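Self-study notes.
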Amino acid sequence: MESLLLFIDRLSAGVGKAFGWCIIIMTLGTCYEVFVRYVLRSPTNWAFDLSYFMYGALFMMAGAYTLSRNGHVRGDVVYRLMPYRVQASIDLVLYIIFLAPGFAALLYYGIPYVEISWIQREVSIYSPTGAPVYPHKTLIPIAAALMLIQCFAEIVRCVICIRDGVWPQRLHDVEEMESAILAEAEDRRRIEEQMHVGAAR
């Protein structure tokens, strides 16, 4: 089961990191627009569309990656003080009642929504260039499906934690500064304890 959970983590990470390049494209497009608008006095009519679509794609497709790294916002100040079994129980209830049904609905209703958009070859009414939005809308059910897959992995993790009293392994490639500081303080405390024990002998 652990190998399946880590495979789902890797899938979410692969998609999230691939779409992470959207931020580079968006940044380059915005820098180009600033240059031509204020230096050459010749603004583009596509830079807004580019940044709009790139940010939207990044936001949607990185959700499962963030969930796989346990990175979504929660009341950590209280949550992290709770026993692991309590944490897992809270998470399990929230995943089952809110997250899974919400993204199941997004997937269910998103597919016909995208089909209509493709049939109409929908374009943005806010774009001076009439940018096509139907490829972008295709990401809606895909993102929902990825979130549901990752949600399944998180539900299994919660069940394992409730049973065993410890969280099962998950992939880590980014660490919050607060976590690093807490880990460093714990290491320092352990070293000081070992030094006191050694001095006492």
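Second protein, same conventions, sequence then structure:
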Amino acid sequence: MNLPEVTTRAADAGAFRLATGAPGTLSAEGPLTFASARGACALGAAALAQAGSGRVEIDCHGITSSDSAGLAVLLEWLSVAKRTGRSLRYVRLPAGLAALARISDVEELLERGV
């Protein structure tokens, strides 16, 4: 998979981007919050569309801040992957995002992926 790096900038929120790594790997970097969620959702959907039928892994260690909108973005990316027959898995969720997923009862889904 040869994906271009994609970035979105939300006013005063910093930049959220998906950077390419090893084949089939993306790194989520920056704030994943209400301010960046709309653009981030589109970036992930575009990255999944370019991924072909291979397995995609998103390393979330670089997410600098998150909220419930950020969690919704990760869930939407799983939904896009499932609808299009792709495989998606998240690794290294930040502690705050993992805690939000736990209290929302979706932690296992994020860890397992589709």
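Instructor comment on the second fold: The first strand starts at residue 6 and ends at 10.
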